Structure formats: structure tokens, C-alpha cells
Amino acid sequence: MGRTGSPPVKSISSHRRRGTLQPIEADMSSPRHKLQIRTPVNPPAGQAFEQLAATLDAHGPVVLPALLLCDFGHLADEVERLEAAGAAALHLDVMDGRFVPQLTYGMVVVEAVRRATTRPIEVHLMVEEPESCVEAYAKAGADIVTVHVEGLTNPRRTLEQIASLGSRAHLAISPGTPVARIEPYLDVCDGVLVMSVEPGFGGQAFNPVALAKLSELAALRSQRGGGFRLAVDGGISTDTIGPVAAAGAELIVAGSAVIRTPDYARAISELEQLARSAA
Ligand code: DX5
Ligand code: ZN
Q1: Beta 251-254 vs 62-65: how paired, if at all?
Q2: Which ligand number lies closest to the CA of residue 65?
Q3: Nearest Cα to 254, choosing from 238, 234, 279?
Q4: N or C end of the chain, less CB within 10 A?
Q5: For 108-164, how does the pLDDT look when each residue is reduced to its tens digit (9 = 90+)?
Q6: CB-based pocket (< 6 A), ligand 1
Q7: What atom of ligand 1 comes closest to residue 195's alpha carbon?
Q8: Cα(240)–Cα(26) distance, rounded to whole angstroms?
Q9: Dihedral sign, CA of 258, 261, 267, 268?
Q10: What is the pTM of this model?
């Protein structure tokens, strides 16, 4: 790193203020330090999204497997299996145990997935004060950073910040939140993620309230002449994927419907076929 001569870092908080995530070990030459350095991630945030957009335009809806229920003891293997199975992109659920009851994982795991795949990554932030960490996730290589309107004090500013960092800015709405709540921000959304379960857990039953919201958003989008992608997350199965695709969903997150099957390729391809024939 060529930083041996740099003055020692004084505190964790001074690092946080600069928005960096380097470790604070003073002995830069020790093997321990070398292990702790977080190497720059590839590709830069947002870059891999172009390929995904081309796939959407050419073939229709895609399935984004959610890793939430995967075997985290073999994370890189799981990512490799999903990539080999044809996953067009991956969906990572970051939960803080406060915005939602469950605590999942954060930056370290997102960075590990980033290193393990060249496919686009969506980071779905189910955290309080998401504005405080969007920069870090974008810099970690999230092609899409998805934030919940329910957790934001200034949605417009946060969405603009995500876009300025080179990631796609997606806005999520929980089942109880009406579309009207996000309408003022659609001009700065690259995508809208309609939750079809309460955020927090995989394996829940699909809530059909999402269908009406997808249709409403699709109509708003046509009125505006385009501008954002439609996504859906929660309870997707071979029974529900057709209806969400027919209602306009293009980026379709599927957790248990992929991860709880023995053959990821078969699950993804069956779901995508159903979605594409219904779209
Ligand atoms: C729920 C998460 C989802 C979840 C989806 O809060 O946002 O991404 O992993 O899992 P399934 O498809 O099993 O509902
Ligand atoms: Zn999710």
C-alpha cells in the first residue's frame, strides 16, 4: 500500500468521518495487517448493471436469488453455484435487528460476495438511518443500493447520493406503505422494490397487495414515459411469479424458491420462464 510512512491513524471515528473502512492497525508491515486490508473490489459499483439491463430488455424479467437462506458456511460456493445456475444478479439482505427484527450481515459479507462474483449485486438495506451507510455499500461494489422509504428522513437526497456514487438507486416500499408515499421521488429512482412480504424474514407467504402496487407503478411509469425499473421481493414461487410479472415486475427476487431447492439452475429457469410467458 506504500503507506508505511503515513502518520498513524488516531481513532475509529476519524476513519468513519472520512467514509473509509480500512483497519486501524499501526504496524502496516505485519502479516496480520496484510490479512485485514480490504482490497479494492471489482467491478466498480454500477458497472455490471449494464449487462443486466440488456438482459431485461432482450428477454424480459429476471430472477435475483436472495442469499438470505443460503449456507453461509460455504458462501463462495453458494455464489458460484448461483452464478453457474444462470442467476443474472444477486440480492443481498442487510438487516440490522432494529429496522427489522432479524440481524443478518453487513459490509464484510457484501464485500466477500463482491469478490466472489462479477454478476450485479443488489444490496437491500433493511436498516435504520440507511443514509449513514449507502456510501459504504456503493463503494463496496453494490450495483443497486435499495433503501426503504419508511427508514429515510430525506428520500430524495439519499437516492441522489446513491446515484452520484455510481450505483443504481432503488426505493423499497413495505406492504403497508402506499405508492403515494414514494410518488414524489420517482423521478430520482432507478427502480422501485415493492415488498410482497413484511421485510425481515425469508420464507413468508406472498401478500397480494403487491400486485395492485406494481400495476399502479407501471401505470405511473407509462404516464411519465419510463424512468425506473419495477422490482418485487418476498414470497415468490412458481404460483406467484406469473402474476407479479404480469403486473409489471422485471427484477424478481426469490429466496426460498431457489435456495431451498436442490437444483438452483432448474429453479431459476423455471421461474424465469413462467415470468417471461406472463409478462
Ligand atoms: C425479506 C427479504 C427477502 C427474502 C426473500 O425481508 O427482503 O429478500 O430473502 O425470501 P423469500 O423469497 O423466501 O420470501
Ligand atoms: Zn430483500
Answers
A1: parallel
A2: 1
A3: 234
A4: N
A5: 999 999 999 999 999 999 999 999 999 999 999 999 999 999 999 999 999 999 999
A6: 66, 68, 91, 93, 124, 197, 199-204, 233-236, 253-257
A7: 7
A8: 54
A9: positive
A10: 0.86
